[in-house]
Amino acid sequence: METISGGIKVSKRKSLREEVYESLKKSILHGKLKGGQRLIEETLADQIGISRTPVREAFHKLERDDLVTKLPKGGFAVREFTKEDVDEIFGIRSALESYAAYLTTLHITPDKLAQLEKKVKESEAALEKGDDERVVELNTEFHDFLYKSCKSKKLFEMINNFRDYFYRYRSLLLHTERGMNYSIDDHRRMLEAMKKKNPRLVERLVRNHLARGKDIILKEVSERRITP
Fold first, then answer.
1. What is the C-alpha separation between 177 and 34, in angstroms, rounded?
2. Fewest beta carbons within 10 Å, which of 68, 117, 219, 221?
């Protein structure tokens, strides 16, 4: 296992192109590689100790995914996302996740409610300790557990297909001022509504949670405090 820029780890057990592609994609979506950051084919190939061909192929695949753009004078850069991208991702999230939360509320059992309660309490404790990375991790675990409990395999698979894209914005949001507090407070409200078996309220809370998240991200981007 070897490490290249952006904390990317490459194992030569897989197809080199696929390994480089997957590692770069994850680093972009998880914010290790920032919007506008240059990716130089020769540099990456030298650092990994491979030929430039699989790196070039990985870049072209990322370009098709709209995650990188080709620079006029050669090389690639991580694509800086636009307001339209943010609107699109949050629109998809709102449609899929609010419905999943509605279904989960219909089916959720006391033991699963207890597990969600534990996630919220652990998040509150991590926030109090100032452990931001743990808060992000627990936030993702809360959402994953909530939607996995919806009892719709197809719906969960659809959410999971976009999981990495969702993570990028979730991580950005939680690192804004008050973002973590807002998120944990919203999770507490969702949990209380689920305990009362009120699926419509849970659905609405998820939509409101995501709408506020989108507004915060757009404000941060417009004021150049973060680059999605």
1. 19
2. 219
Same domain, 149 and 174: yes
Nearest to 4 by CA among 30, 31, 33, 29: 33
Pair 35, 72 in one domain: yes
On whether both 22 and 114 belong to a single domain, the answer is: no
Sign of the dihedral through C-alpha 65, 67, 71, 74: negative
- Indicate the number of domains in the chain: 2
Question: Is residue 39 within 8 Å of residue 76, measured between CB atoms?
Answer: yes
Distance CA 194, CA 108 (A): 8
Per-residue pLDDT tens over the stretch 61-107: 999 988 899 998 888 999 887 888 889 989 999 999 999 999 999 99
User: Do 72 and 142 belong together in one domain?
Assistant: no
pLDDT at residue 2, as a whole number: 41
